[in-house]
């Protein structure tokens, strides 16, 4: 298997809902494993997500988990998830779904470098950047 690099997001108890949302946005196969499935059946977080992986038809892989008790979750100020390419229809569709119920910090529009670009934070507090490259045709 080749090496790969993909986002791994920590959530504060809502990883299942977030990953199901991302499956609605991107499609694909979602595998969810709980803490209870891996030997912590009696723990308070038994039903929370120990590991989730979404693999999409577009080749995206997104992983996540709920943060165990005693660990803090902070997010939003040091990382964003970036989507880019030249399939404008697909990227605009992702943008519409990701920004719905969230907040837009940079509207998806043509930028000075020639591409269409926008930044939003989804309803789970995850920041996203979407860049639609101008076709080089």
TrEMBL record:
Domain of life, source organism: Bacteria
Classification via InterPro entries: Glyas_Bleomycin-R_OHBP_Dase (IPR029068), Glyas_Fos-R_dOase_dom (IPR004360), PhnB-like (IPR028973)
Which SUPFAM superfamilies would you find in this protein's record?
Glyoxalase/Bleomycin resistance protein/Dihydroxybiphenyl dioxygenase
Q: Which Gene3D superfamilies match?
A: 2,3-Dihydroxybiphenyl 1,2-Dioxygenase, domain 1
Domain Glyoxalase/fosfomycin resistance/dioxygenase, chain residue ranges per copy: 5-130
> What Pfam families is this protein classified in?
Glyoxalase
Cross-referenced PANTHER family: PROTEIN YJDN, PROTEIN YJDN-RELATED
What name is this protein filed under? VOC family protein
